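Example record used in the benchmark description.
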Amino acid sequence: MANVQYYDVILKPVITEKSMDLMADKKYTFLVHTEATKNQIKEAVEKMFEGTKVKSVNTMNLDGKKKRRGMTFGRTAKTKKAIVQLTEDSKDIEIFEGL
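Model output (structure tokens):
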């Protein structure tokens, strides 16, 4: 397994209607490094966003989609998505404010 640092774990937030509805329950969705573990994701969120405490982390591996260009077939890159639930007394994550 690669040596993944905490600042390399979270790639970008996922902004969809479903993820915005989950924010009411203090659940935030991120695209993460494909080799990151749940403990690494928890550590990264707590270090990157001050005052947050993670209650649980759910992850899902997404395979690449099949794509075609003319007669050539290929696949897009694999991704990993994480849904992070914060505790009740935790601060909200600021990057999602005002969306």
